[in-house]
Amino acid sequence: MLKINHLYKNYGRFLAVNDLNLHVEKGELFGFVGANGAGKTTTMRICVGLLGATSGQVLIDGEDVLSNHDLLSRKIGYVPDFFGVYSSFSAMEYLEFFASTYGIRGAEAEVLCKDLLDLVKLSHKADADVNGLSRGMKQRMCLARALVHNPDILFLDEPASGLDPKARFELKEILKNLSSMGKTIVISSHILPELAEMCTSIGIIDKGQMMLKGTIDEIHRAASAASPLLVTVDDESIDAAFEVLKQIPVVQQVSSQGSLMKVVITGGKEDEKAILASLLQNDISVYSFTRQDGSLESLFMDIVGRRKNENVRGGVQ
Ligand SMILES: Nc1ncnc2c1ncn2[C@@H]1O[C@H](COP(=O)(O)OP(=O)(O)OP(=O)(O)O)[C@@H](O)[C@H]1O
Ligand SMILES: [Mg+2]
């Protein structure tokens, strides 16, 4: 459905998007996560044709957005990160106005706009002035507005920012509903756990580069793999355990608090087994040996932080 190939975007000499590659299949709910300034809005604005790229390709259903935008605009819906409001429009009139820009008028527009207000749970505000809607309601109005032409793919730039927990929950339900209707959705946020709750796949962007992408299961597995081993040994064996661990190539860092050792490793299950075997072969009494539960937040911080500290190498303490 969406393919981004070797996308670059320069603002003057500043490189905001740096060789970004991404494939999103039809029907996916893709979460695009990155810190402030990572390049999410820039990438989305290029995908919807509002911004030119410096180089690279964005394909929607195999067609290049950058050269065929007019042709593709009907397939694309976009909810920007900041939205303007229009004075003296009721919610219903507001949607009818946008429907008319797509040539949908009269009874057809009325049915469509009522359905859309229902979809975003704003039917009770049909006659209310859009300026008087709460922030969360305005955000839902924008979503309804982006749906008037029944697009196949929707780009939502931080739609949950500034919403209270109840409004976030409602937004998630609406997006899951749209996803079950077969829409492909690309949604950005700077909070990985929030996206992980609803998305089918995730991409983490940092400084304009895609650092990690995968299905939600793969992201959870990566979070576990990024967590340290927690090993409790006999008090007498701590020094010997340090010596043994230091010799193992996948061990990046070891620290201890009392008899609890925290061991940062680069490998997976097989490496964990080999580490335990080495400790036991060296007559170290191991009382417990587990991998800390992987948190998505720490995975995200690890990826973003790793780049900030590119010159700092983990060493065995
Ligand atoms: N019009 C512009 N001119 C110059 N630099 C820009 C422009 N727009 C964005 N940038 C820069 O490009 C980088 C990426 O910005 P972008 O808005 O895409 O990030 P973002 O991931 O959407 O961040 P946020 O989470 O804050 O919305 C930032 O360093 C930003 O300062
Ligand atoms: Mg942004």
Topology:
Blueprint: E1 2-11, E2 14-24, E3 29-33, H1 40-47, E4 55-60, E5 63-64, H2 69-72, E6 76-79, H3 91-101, H4 106-119, H5 135-147, E7 153-156, H6 165-180, E8 184-189, H7 192-196, E9 201-206, E10 209-215, H8 216-225, E11 229-233, H9 238-246, E12 251-257, E13 260-265, H10 269-281, E14 286-291, H11 296-308
Bound molecules: adenosine-5'-triphosphate and magnesium ion.
Adenosine-5'-triphosphate (ATP) is lined by residues 11, 14, 16, 34, 36-42, 81, 190.
CATH topology descriptor of the largest domain: Rossmann fold
CATH-derived architecture of the largest domain? 3-Layer(aba) Sandwich
The biggest sheet amounts to:
6 strands, mixed
Name the poorly predicted regions.
Answer: 308-317
Q: In percent, how helical is the residue content? A: 25-40%
Domains (count):
2
Overall 3D form: elongated
Individual helix count: 11
What pattern of helices and strands is seen along the backbone? Answer: EEEHEEHEHHHEHEHEEHEHEEHEH
Return the CATH class of the largest domain: Alpha Beta
Structural class: alpha/beta
> What separation lies between the terminal Cα atoms?
48 Å
Q: What are the distinct ligands in this entry?
A: adenosine-5'-triphosphate, magnesium ion
